[in-house]
Design brief:
Hypothetical Protein Yjia, Chain: A,domain 2, 9 helices, 2 domains, 309 residues, Rossmann fold, six-stranded antiparallel beta sheet, alpha/beta, nine-stranded mixed beta sheet
Length: 309
């Protein structure tokens, strides 16, 4: 099964390592592999260390941490050969690295098949002057982001978060903007639910990945859908969505699953595998801000995508 990759970018001192620390400390049973530039900044409690070998620190909670030395693709290949295999891979970039170059590397066909880039997260210090967003490197970090996390709000002046949101909006950055107090970001935004393991029955109600702001809704169908109708439905849903991810079979290409992703205002499609026996032909997870999208509205739009509906 492919291992989704989270790429964490942001300028020097923005708080990237704090985010990685929080993910490792609150893995809740998930096997997360973190690829970092500096072991020293990773806050690994002594009681969590289970062992170290070959440049990899194993943690007692099932996570591992390795230092990014040399070729990124070689590092990822090493992680993917580990037993047990990680369930998620988090890559923390250097604060002076252009993430566009790393994204291009991750588009390598071999890596893309085994470790697809799931989310690009840009961490931005909320106290940063708006003028700093004119910097070419910061612009590049924002441009590739699916999620922008505002950090250090507790240290910034009152209203800094609102001003930063307005400055980001002025740049027409389509990413979802969230607050990252002490590195905490809803995991469901970073790694949407694994739709290939979705239940065959629709969930009775929304699940909330973060009690303050977001909720998760899902939709399934045992019939193939019309791709043009889906494109129209997503166009209507887009202003209300933070993320979406799903697998579906279309009438245009029967017997073949398509992988759908929506993040940062961008929708992508890629060919998937043969449908697994006993699973719905269509299963899509949607994440929206609380109150923005009802299950009845979602059902109505998505039912209109079903072939023959």
């Amino acid at each position: 099964m492919p291992v989704p990759v989270l790429l964490v970018t942001g300028f020097l001192g923005a708080g990237k390592t704090t985010v990685v620390n929080h993910l490792l400390a609150h893995a809740d049973g998930r096997r997360i592999a973190a690829v970092v530039n500096d072991f020293g900044a990773i806050n690994i409690d002594a009681e969590l260390i289970a062992g170290a070998s070959d440049g990899v620190v194993s943690l007692a909670n099932g996570c591992i941490c390795c230092s990014l030395e040399g070729d990124l693709l070689r590092t990822l290949s090493t992680l993917l050969r580990r037993d047990p295999r990680p369930e998620y891979i988090v890559i923390e970039t250097s604060g002076v690295a252009d993430p566009a170059d790393i994204v291009r590397n991750l588009m390598d066909p071999v890596i893309l098949r085994e470790a697809p880039l799931e989310t690009v997260l840009c961490v931005l210090d909320a106290g940063t002057p708006a003028s700093a967003l004119e910097d070419a490197l910061v612009r590049s970090q924002l441009r590739v982001a699916d999620i922008v996390a505002l950090s250090k709000l507790d240290l910034a002046e009152e209203g800094a978060g609102v001003r930063m949101r307005e400055a980001i909006r002025a740049l027409r950055v389509p990413a979802v903007v969230v607050e990252a107090n002490h590195g905490e970001i809803p995991l469901a935004l970073l790694f949407p639910a694994a739709v290939d393991r979705a239940p065959t029955l629709r969930e009775p109600g929304p699940r909330r990945p973060a009690e303050e702001r977001f909720e998760t809704l899902s939709w399934t169908s045992d019939r193939p859908i019309s791709l043009p109708r889906l494109q129209q439905a997503i166009g209507r849903l887009a202003p209300k969505l933070a993320r979406a991810k799903g697998l579906f079979e279309t009438v245009e290409q029967p017997g073949r699953l398509m992988v759908f992703q929506f993040a940062g205002g961008r929708a992508t499609l890629a060919p998937g595998e043969t449908p697994a026996p006993g699973m719905p032909r269509t299963r899509i997870v949607f994440i929206a801000e609380l109150g923005m999208l009802s299950q009845s509205e979602l059902d109505g739009l998505m039912e209109g995508c079903v072939a023959g509906g």
